[in-house]
Structures
1.
Amino acid sequence: MLIAGNWKMFKGPAEAEAFAVELRGRLEGVSGVDVAVCPPYTSLAAVVQALDRSEIAVYAQNVHWAGDGAYTGEVSPAMLLELGVTGSIVGHSERRQLFGESDEMVARRARTALEAGFGVIACVGETLEQRESGDTELVLKIQVEAISFAAGAHERLVIAYEPVWAIGTGKTATPEMAEEAHAFIKGLLDRPVLYGGSVKPENAAELMSQTSVDGALVGGASLDPDSFAAICRAASTS
Ligand code: PEP
C-alpha cells in the first residue's frame, strides 16, 4: 500500500514545513503503509528537512526528461535528487489538460525519472465524456501502453488510476468501478495501481479493500494533516 498526497499549488515553504512536522507526529506507530507527500517545487527542500530520518518520502509533482538544458520552467531528476527528493508524479491530468502534456511527454518523463532511480507515480484516467461514450478502456490502454513502452515494468513504477471526472469534484468512483479499471490496467502492465479522485477518510477503507487497489493518490484531503493521516491509517489496516 502506498498513500501519496498531491499538494498541487498549495503550501509555501513555511506552511509546508509545519505540516510535515505535524504529519510526522500523527503517523508515528502507523505501519504497513508507505507514505509520500508531493509539495510544490519551492517547498521541497523545507519538507525534506522536516522529514529527515522519517519513513515519509518526499516526491515532486513533475520532473523533466533531460539532465539539463534549455527547458525554461522545468526541473531535472538530478536536481531533485540533490535535494533529497526520491520520486515524482508524472502525467497528472492537470498537466495533461491544462498544460498540454502528451502521452509521449509523460512517458519520457517517467523513463528518465526511473532511470535516475526515482519512484514514479504515473497517472492515467478517462474524462467523463470518454467514460460516457464507452471509451474508458481504450483511453486507459493508450495511456498505459505509452508509459509501459517507454518505461517497461520497472520496479519503481506505480500507476495511479485517476478518473478525471472524480478529481477535485467530490465524485468518487464506486469501489466496483475502481476495481474494474485497476484490474484492466494490471492486465496491461503488472505494477501496483493507486486510486485517485476525491479519496477522503470516509471512503478510503472501502476503496483500499478492493483486491486490485494498492493505495491512493490524494489531492484535496492531503492538505489537512487530520484527514491525510486518517487515510494513511485506513490503508494500514486494510
Ligand atoms: C489529485 O489531484 O490527484 C486528486 C486525486 O485530487 P482529489 O483527491 O482532490 O480529487
2.
Amino acid sequence: MRSLLAYRVTFIPGDGTGPEISEAVRRVLEATGVEFEWDWQTAGADVYEEEGTPLPDRVIESIKERGLAIKGPITTPVGSGFRSINVALRKELDLYSCLRPCKAYAGVRTRFPETDIVIVRENHEDLYAGIEYELGDEKTARLREFIKDTEGTELREDVGVSIKPISVFGTKRIVRAAFDYAKANGRSKVTAAHKANIMKFTDGLFLKTAQEVAEEEYPDIEFEDRIIDNLCNQLVSRPEEYDVVVLPNLYGDIVSDLGAGLIGGLGVAPGANIGDETAVFEAVHGSAPKYKGQNKVNPMALMLSGLMLLRHIDEREAADRLEGAIAEVIREGESVTYDMKPSRDDPTAVGTSDVADAVIAKMEKVAA
Ligand code: NAD
C-alpha cells in the first residue's frame, strides 16, 4: 500500500561519477510515484578539505534520524590518511549485513544467464576486524610468546599476524538476516559457506551456530552448507542451484565480486548495508573517477540498489514496475551504456542520463 507521507531518505551523491549517477537514480525513483523527501548530504575528499573530516557527524545524524540512505560511490584517496568512508559508515551505524543480489537479466553479457543469487555477507568480524600484529612490533613478540606458551607452536620471528574473531552473536544475527531476507522475498533456500573443516573454532562455530538458527528458528526454509572452495567451484558451474548464500566477512567479500562477475559486471551489481535500525543502499562499484563529468558510466547498479530500497520499505508494486522497466531496457540493449554493449567503443552507447530517460519512459508506458 502506498504511504501518504513522503519517505525521508538521506541521499549522499558521492564524488567522481557519483553525482551524475545519483541524479539519474533520483529521477528514476521519483518517477515510480513513491514520494521521497531527500536530505542531501555530502561526504568525501572535498568535504575533508572544508570540514576536516570526510564523514562529518551531520551525515551520520541524518542517516540515524531517517534510518534510510542511498549513497553514490566515494573515492578513498590513496595515502591521504583517512580510512574508507564506507567502512566508517558500516561501523558507526552498525550495518552488520551486506546484501548483494546477483541476478542476471536477459540481455546482459554473461556466461551464467540462470544466476539469481543473493549474497549475505557479515560486515564486522572475521579477518577484517582490524586486529593485526605488525612485523617487528613489540606486541607481536608478546603474541609469539603467548602462542608458544599455550600452543607449543613457535611462529617465525619475521611474522605478521591478523586475528580472525567470529562470535555466536555476530553469526546469529547475520544468519537471521539471511533467513529474514529469504522469507520476505519469497526465497526458498539458505546456504552457509565456511571452511569449518580447517578452522574449527571460527568457521566451525559459524557453521554450528548457523545450523542451530536454521533448525530452531526457520524450519520452513531449506538450509544447507558448503565448504567455501567447493561453493566457488559450484557457483561457476551450477549457479542456478543457489538461492541465498550467507558467509563470514572475508569469503563474503570475495564471493560478492564473483557474483558481480556472474551477472555481467560492476555496471549492474547493486548492494545494501543493513543493520537493525538503518539501511544504506549503494552500488558495488567505486567512483570511476576517470569518467567524472562525462555522462558515460552505467547508473543501473545504483538504480537496482534503489530498487532494493523500495522493496525494503515494502513499496513492492513500485519496485516491480521499476525492475520490469530496467529489465526491458537491458533486454532491448539500445539505451544502455558502453559497458553493456558488445564492444566497449560501440558508437550506439548512450550516456548515464539517457539510461534514466529510457527507464522512466518504460515505466510511463506500463502506467499508460
Ligand atoms: P571503480 O569501481 O570505481 O572502477 C573500476 C572500473 O570499473 C572503472 O574504470 C570502469 O571501467 C568500471 N566501472 C565502475 N563503475 C562503473 C559504472 N557504473 N559503469 C561502467 N563502468 C564502471 O573501482 P576503482 O577504480 O578501484 O575505485 C575508484 C575509487 O572508488 C577508489 O577511491 C575506491 O576506493 C572507491 N570505491 C568506492 C566504493 C564506494 O563508495 N562504495 C566502492 C569501491 C571503490
